[in-house]
Specification:
0% strand, 140 residues, mainly alpha
């Protein structure tokens, strides 16, 4: 009967955290089983615009790499901090947390496009800082 507490724990995970964490795990399993290739998941503006492969806008946030120590800690920290946010700052406001999540992803992609098209080569510093500051403002 050891599965019972695990099943109950899974049911108690907030919905957005559960969806995102499971999405990350399922995406990685699909890559490990060679159902999809990592090259079908990564963010590539040329393929998004020219071949309309719009799934890359979402899958770029779902694939953490192959199974291993790095993957385990990425999933663990993602799960932990998403759950803390959803149960803490966004308690009872699941839709607000989901919108904040989408807003952060959208700003990350927009900052990359700005960097990509203007060839500024500063995505690691200024644009990323602007994304996190904007998310902090929205979270308040």
């Amino acid at each position: 009967m050891a599965y019972r507490p695990l099943q109950e724990e899974f049911r108690q995970i907030p919905p957005v955290t559960k969806l995102y964490t499971c999405g990350c795990i399922v995406t990685t399993i699909a890559v490990q089983l060679e159902i999809v290739s990592p090259f079908q998941l990564y963010f590539n503006p040329d393929l998004i615009f020219k071949q309309f492969q719009i799934w890359r806008l979402a899958t770029t946030f779902l694939y953490f790499g192959n199974f291993g120590f790095h993957f385990f800690f990425n999933v663990l920290f993602t799960y932990r901090y998403c759950r803390l946010l959803e149960e803490g700052s966004f308690r009872g406001r699941t839709a607000d947390f989901f919108v904040m999540f989408l807003f952060g992803g959208t700003l990350t992609i927009v900052s990359f496009y700005i960097d990509y098209f203007l060839e500024l080569k500063i995505c690691g510093s200024l644009t990323t800082g602007a994304v996190f500051k904007s998310m902090e403002i929205v979270a308040r």
